[in-house]
Every structure is written in structure tokens, then in C-alpha cells.
Design a protein that fits this description.
Blueprint lengths: L9 E7 L12 H8 L3 E7 L12 E2 L9 E2 L1 H10 L7 E10 L2 H8 L3 E6 L7 H6 L3 E4 L9 H12 L32 E2 L2 E2 L9 H19 L1 H9 L8
Parallel strand pairs: 1-2, 1-6, 5-6, 5-7
Antiparallel strand pairs: 3-4, 8-9
Helix pairs in contact: 3-5, 6-7
Length: about 240
């Protein structure tokens, strides 16, 4: 875990019952190197530190009955309030949130950072959302054991877009979702593998033909695998050439 006070670098503040889960994979590869180099900062805070009883209780039985436990409003609110000095919007990781998209990632990455709230159990008392409004974000139509894995994912997506983190400034320009399409296929040496050759156009040295091939393949894959993305892409700027 890296504790970081407010700074001029992009800062991820994580409110969690399991601060030892951080940095986790964020301490490795691109994100880890950038963290070590001070290109971004991480502050993982334990929600349990704000519990008021000797047992450090953070949850209770759901009002109205039912299975599981619910995170208490008073404890969660105290944790959120104590992080008010940290930069960026308040982000709740929850299955009922808006879908995480590359556009949203770019928006968060362009700011000073964000405060990520990781729920557990059956969820968080609704009064927290009402009194401490923030952006509710979901990774998809499935349920995790807690918000930590979602926070790790969202932070990783943001960090790789920060200046100087990726090796080349344009290295993310053709990736999936950046232009409304899934990414085209990639190849490298060896020239032949299991009877399959690298497509000849990619070794032709003809840059315009390579660009056309990549666009065609990106369109083909998107149309086959994500008709929802394809529908939006195909109707974009109707009447004008795409791209």
C-alpha cells in the first residue's frame, strides 16, 4: 500500500475494508513502474477505522429482513467525509451503476484523480448515496464479492492513459473502443506459426494498405462480435465516410 497525501499527480484514493489488496496488480508492470516513478499516487484507506465501537463494526442486518448484511451509513459516511481532502470525484463501484466505458475512463484520467468507494456484503445503506452523491459505476452485468476488483480495474484503465505511462503517446489510439470499434488483429515473429503466415499486407511496407487492412479487420470483428457497437459506429456521421 502506498499512502499519498494530496499532490499534483493523479491520485487514486480507495476506501475499502481490505486496504492490503492495494496496490496488488497495480504495483506491477506499467502501473507499478509509474507508481514508483511518482507519475500517479495511491492512498488506500480502511473504512473500519471509522467504526465507533470497540469491535469496529461496519455492517448490520438489513432493515425489513433478508439474507446477508448491509454496510452501515454512519461508518461509510465518516470514511467518505474523512477523504474529502483528496482530489477528484467520488466513485461508487456498484452493479447498479452506469457501465464503465473508455470514454468515462478518459474523463476520469483527465482530472486530478478520484475517490473509489468499495462496498461489501449486500451493499451500502442507501442513505449514503443520498447524502454523499457520487458517480455509480459498474463493470458489467455481474456481481463481485466487493468493489475492490472493480476499483483495481478502473484505476488501471485510468493510469495507463496518464502522460508518460505508456511507451508511445499514440500507443492507445487504435485500441478497442477508442474509435467505436474493437481492435484489429496483431501479429509478430515468427513469420510462420502452425501453418499460418502473417498476412502479406502487414509485411508489404505499404503503410496506406496496412491502415486500410487494419480498419477493415476492426470493422469486421466489431460487426461479428459486438453488433451494439457496430450499430452506433455505422450510423455515426451518416452520409460521411467513416474515419
Amino acid at each position: 500500500m502506498t499512502d499519498a497525501p494530496f499532490s499534483s499527480v493523479w491520485t487514486a484514493t480507495v476506501l475499502t475494508l481490505y486496504p492490503d489488496m492495494f496496490p496488488g496488480p497495480l504495483g506491477l508492470s506499467l502501473a507499478g513502474r509509474a507508481l514508483d516513478e511518482g507519475k500517479w499516487a495511491l492512498d488506500a484507506r480502511n473504512i473500519r477505522d471509522h467504526a465507533g465501537d470497540k469491535h469496529r463494526t461496519v455492517d448490520d442486518t438489513p432493515a425489513g429482513g433478508g439474507p446477508g448484511m448491509v454496510m452501515r451509513a454512519d461508518v461509510m459516511a465518516a470514511a467518505i467525509d474523512a477523504s474529502a481532502d483528496q482530489p477528484g470525484p467520488l466513485v461508487y463501484l456498484t452493479p447498479r451503476g452506469v457501465p464503465l466505458t473508455q470514454g468515462l475512463v478518459r474523463e476520469i484520467a483527465a482530472g486530478p484523480g478520484a475517490r473509489f468507494v468499495c462496498g461489501r456484503f449486500e451493499g451500502v445503506d442507501e442513505r449514503v448515496f443520498a447524502t454523499r452523491p457520487g458517480l455509480e459505476v459498474s463493470l458489467g452485468d455481474f456481481v463481485l464479492s466487493g468493489g475492490e476488483a472493480a476499483a483495481l480495474t478502473m484505476i488501471d484503465a485510468c493510469v495507463r492513459l496518464l502522460p508518460g505511462v505508456m511507451g508511445a503517446e499514440a500507443s492507445g489510439d487504435d485500441e478497442s473502443f477508442e474509435n467505436g470499434l474493437l481492435e484489429y488483429p496483431h501479429y509478430t515473429r515468427p513469420q510462420e506459426f502452425d501453418g499460418m503466415e502473417i498476412p502479406a499486407v502487414l509485411t508489404s511496407g505499404h503503410h496506406e494498405k496496412v491502415r486500410e487492412w487494419r480498419l477493415h479487420e476492426a470493422e469486421r470483428i466489431t460487426k461479428e462480435r459486438r453488433p451494439d457497437l457496430w450499430a452506433a459506429y455505422a450510423t455515426k456521421d451518416a452520409g460521411a465516410p467513416l474515419r
